[in-house]
Specification:
By secondary structure, the protein is an all-alpha fold. It is 87% helix and 0% strand. It has four helices and no strands.
Length: 141
């Protein structure tokens, strides 16, 4: 039944999402300071802080998409709506504060932070409880 393959499919999806997102995000951190000015004609050179924040956000967003797909399939639409609205509500003021402190990089760090705290962690907790409850239900024939 679903109690066997669904959690394993989620773990496989998370691994694939990480493996798909991490290399280009790492490239962004390592080479973005050179590639971006070359690409846009040398008008802007992004800081390492900006590139690192964007890279972290990219990896978390990719893995969050895998988790959200699982949760949509499990019918947790209300939970996902609450998570995303909460994330938006927290991101805006946090971004304003961090932009004041860090400049443009503050936006990237606000997005990465709320992706982790407001979306990724609650989703993993929800999935863990969902899977635990799935295993405790009697199997129907």
């Amino acid at each position: 039944g679903d109690t066997e393959w669904a959690p394993q499919a989620l773990l496989r999806s998370l691994k694939i999402a990480f493996l798909a997102a991490a290399p280009p995000c790492a490239l962004l951190v390592v080479a973005g300071g050179t590639l971006i000015p070359w690409w846009i004609g040398g008008h802007v050179t992004p800081s390492l802080s900006l590139l690192t924040g964007l890279a972290l956000w990219g990896v978390l967003a990719g893995m969050g998409t895998a988790t959200s797909s699982f949760l949509y399939g499990a019918g947790a639409v209300r939970f996902l709506g609450i998570v995303r609205v909460t994330q938006a509500i927290v991101t805006v003021p946090l971004a304003l504060v961090l932009i004041h402190l860090l400049g443009v990089a503050g936006l990237a760090w606000a997005m990465a932070g709320t992706e982790l705290v407001c979306r990724f962690v609650p989703s993993i907790v929800y999935v863990s409880r969902f899977v635990r409850d799935m295993h405790s239900r009697p199997v129907r024939a």
